[in-house]
């Protein structure tokens, strides 16, 4: 239970990542739990909401402590809006987080084991169109940083899969939401990237099963904190150390060797499958079953076919 969004914010701030200022607010309406009030009286001191808002700075975002899919997220530009949003937050435990206003690009990465796909993301778009097909939207060094941060979070918390949201502004990566250990893997949202996700899940699952990779529950947080607390290390040097720790945890070199020797045709097999009639039938069934608005089905089916075929074409070209 301790491995959630607030723990992730605290841990990654300790490690020196450029996380925007983030505060956790007490429940506006106490939960219906007899144990809550004695705990709150002991641990929840009175606080000045407006002073917190001023210290963070406007604009800022209020978002649920246990949120997902952008539900309950509010952009706030004044003390009055902050008070209103908090008064209407009910029993939901909320975070306040400084906005990265005027950011250059929104990146969302999906990590499965040691494999990471960094994707251009548009949170303002419709839920089925948020992943932008843009392969060169980040400079190589920034793409590497985003990928390292994503795998760092996973290795630190012992998560096998996770998605990480990062805003890039003026060449600096700001992680804003990265505790999503049940990441979005739906065809209707990933589209082009769906085959990559399934291929990565298959490769990692086979590797773990065949090599009998043990599931580790105990965290070696001290190794990470030693790097994060070392004032002699630059930010880039800390990233290198975190990458080394993550690669050690996920056995990256062994995994890559395993894939090359044991799964040499996996990419080819995945391409053949996503180009097959069986996959098309499954995709149509998935969309018509999961998307509740029938008027969207035809367009989403066509979008899925177009993007998956584009992925297969790109994969074939890369294999030549």
Task: Write down the CATH topology of the largest domain.
Answer: D-amino Acid Aminotransferase, Chain A, domain 1
CATH architecture of the largest domain: 2-Layer Sandwich
Structural class: alpha+beta
Helix content: 40-55%
Low-pLDDT runs of 5+ residues are none
Write a structural description.
The protein has 320 residues and is α+β, with helices and mostly antiparallel strands. It has 3 domains: 21-98, Dna Ligase, domain 1 (2-Layer Sandwich); 105-189 and 218-250, D-amino Acid Aminotransferase, Chain A, domain 1; 266-319. It contains 13 helices and 9 strands. The protein has helices at residues 5-14, 36-43, 49-56, 79-87, 140-157, 187-190, 194-210, 221-228, 235-250, 252-262, 266-274, 277-290, 297-319; strands spanning 22-25, 60-64, 74-76, 94-98, 105-112, 115-121, 131-132, 161-169, 172-180. The strands form 2 sheets. A 5-stranded antiparallel beta sheet has the order 7-6-5-8-9. The chain has a 4-stranded antiparallel beta sheet with strand order 1-4-2-3, covered by helices on one side. Strand 5 and strand 6 (115-121) form a beta hairpin. Helix 5 (140-157) crosses helix 9 (235-250) and helix 12 runs antiparallel to helix 13. The protein is globular, with a radius of gyration of 21 Å. The mean pLDDT is 94.
């Amino acid at each position: 239970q301790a491995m959630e969004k607030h723990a992730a914010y605290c841990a990654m701030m300790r490690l020196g990542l450029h996380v925007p200022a983030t505060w956790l607010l007490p429940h506006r309406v106490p939960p219906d739990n007899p144990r809550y009030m004695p705990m709150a009286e002991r641990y929840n001191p009175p606080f000045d909401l407006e002073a917190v808002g001023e210290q963070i700075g406007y604009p800022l975002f209020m978002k649920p402590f246990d949120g997902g899919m952008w539900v309950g997220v509010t952009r706030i530009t004044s003390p009055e809006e902050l008070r209103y949003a908090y008064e209407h937050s009910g029993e939901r435990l909320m975070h306040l987080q400084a906005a990265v206003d005027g950011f250059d690009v929104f990146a969302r990465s999906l990590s499965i084991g040691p494999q990471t796909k960094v994707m251009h993301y548009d949170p303002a778009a419709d839920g089925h169109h948020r992943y932008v097909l843009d392969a060169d939207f980040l400079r190589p060094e920034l793409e590497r940083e985003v990928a390292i941060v994503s795998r760092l979070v996973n290795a630190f918390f012992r998560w096998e899969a996770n998605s990480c949201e990062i805003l890039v502004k003026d060449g600096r990566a700001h992680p804003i939401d990265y505790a999503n250990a049940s990441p979005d893997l739906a065809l209707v949202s990933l589209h082009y990237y769906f085959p990559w996700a399934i291929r990565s899940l298959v490769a990692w699952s086979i590797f773990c099963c065949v090599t009998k990779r043990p599931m580790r529950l105990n965290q070696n947080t001290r190794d990470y904190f030693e790097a994060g607390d070392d004032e002699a290390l630059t930010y880039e040097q800390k990233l290198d150390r975190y990458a080394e720790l993550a690669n050690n945890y996920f056995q990256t070199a062994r995994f890559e060797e395993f894939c090359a020797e044991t799964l040499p045709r996996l990419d080819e097999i995945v391409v053949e499958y996503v180009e097959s009639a069986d996959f098309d039938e499954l995709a149509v069934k998935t969309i018509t079953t999961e998307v509740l608005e029938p008027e969207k089905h035809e367009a989403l089916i066509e979008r899925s076919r177009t993007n998956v075929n584009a992925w297969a074409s790109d994969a074939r070209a890369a294999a030549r």
